[in-house]
Structure formats: C-alpha cells, structure tokens
Amino acid sequence: MERIKVFIADDHTLFVQGLISLLESERYIELLGWVEDGQKALEMSLRLHPDILILDISMPKLNGLQVARRLKENSQVEIILLTVHKEMHYLKEAMNLDVKGYVLKEDAFEDLICAIKDVSEGKQYISPALKKSVEALMKLDYLSFQSCLTKREEEVLDLIAEGLTNKQIASELKISRRTVESHRAKIMRKFNLKTSAQLIKFALKKRWK
After folding, report:
1. How buried is residue 139: exposed, middle or buried, by Cβ count under 10 Å (0-12/13-18/19+)?
2. Position with higher pLDDT, 70 vs 137
3. How many domains are there within the chain?
4. How far, in Å, CA of 135 to CA of 96, rounded?
5. What dihedral do alpha carbons 101, 102, 103, 104 form, nearest 10°?
6. Distance CA 72, CA 78 (A)
7. Global pTM value
8. Which of 133, 146, 196, 207 is the 20 to 30 A CA-CA neighbour of 10?
9. Do the Cβ atoms of 59 and 38 come closer than 8 Å?
10. What CATH number is given to the structural domain containing 64?
C-alpha cells in the first residue's frame, strides 16, 4: 500500500508533538514535517506536494482558510482543517472551499486517523460532534441555493447534472437552444463558474432529489 504523505501546519507546539506521535504510529502515513504559520504552510505545500495538509484555522500570517483558498487555485493537495472552532460560519466557508476534512481539536486523537483515511479515498470527513451543525447548514444552503435560481434555471441545471447537451435540454424543455445557453450563462455568473467543466461539477454537487 502506498503511504499517504501528510504535512501539518499548527502553531501549538505541544499539541503538534502529540499529533506527530499519533501519525508516526501508523505505517501507511508518511509525515513530511510541520510548520507554525500559514505562510510557511502555503510555501511548503507547494514545494513538497503532500497528499493531505492538516491545517489549523487560527494561525499567524495566513489563517487556515486563507491557505486553503490559495491552494485551491494552485495545488491538488487535499485539506483537513483541525480546529477549535465549532461556529457554523467557519464550517460553511470550509465547505465552500471544498475542504474535505473538518476535525475538532478536542476530538483529534480519536477522529484524525479516520479523517485521513477517508479523505485519502476521496471521501469527506467531518467530526461526528458537528453532525447537527452540518445538517442545519445543508438545509440553509439548500434553501439559499434554490432561492437564487429561477424555476427554469433549476430545470436546466438538473438536466445538466443528468448529462444532457444543450440541444437535448432544449428538446426536453421545449425551448430554443439559445435560451438554454442563456440560462447556462446566468447560472455560471450567479455562482462565479468559469468553464463548462466547473458548471457540470457544480450541477452534480448541487443536484437535489
């Protein structure tokens, strides 16, 4: 089994020493090192290319969310936020940045290994203690999402998620192909999507039943 390359960014030395002991006890994890501020975390991630970066949110120079935002544009590294913050706005921003892991520090020594395993397999991991917050957030996000789209835009997006072309969507909804293209463009503007690939990914992620 190929080892999972992990890097840590956290400014609490004693806490990090505990994490290092935990991670080094797992044979399938290769710990590349650690730094104590966000700027170094960004630099070392771009230099070392870890599979997973474990980030504290509250750090000097750049916080964990700022680092995640910059890496999203420049790197394929997956991120696990390791934090004391339980507030919903932190969790919402993390989800908007497509962060795959959100682990509370109080549960780190129970949850982190599971989080690393799940994230390395392309899954999402959020501390079980935040389950109710996640459910509330998803409900709010769903309502907010629906409220900013017209009914026709919802229909177009749903059909995009099903893999239909503009021509097929036009036929299905009995509208012109140009109208479909107009709806696609409006959806992309509303959610700051730049390419068709981003639109398809967004449609699949946001698809409702």
Report:
1. exposed
2. 70
3. 2
4. 15
5. 170
6. 9
7. 0.65
8. 133
9. yes
10. 3.40.50.2300
Q: What digits encode the pLDDT tens for the residues 137-180?
A: 555 454 444 446 788 888 898 899 888 999 999 999 999 999 99
pLDDT tens for 179-193 read 999 999 988 887 778
DSSP string, 106-123: GGHHHHHHHHHHHHHTT-
In this structure, the chain runs to a length of 209
| Sequence-distant contacts of 129-132: CB under 8 A, at least 24 apart | 129/86, 129/104, 130/86, 130/91, 130/102, 130/104
- Give the residue numbers spanning the domain of 94: 4-129
Tokens of 199: 């639109």
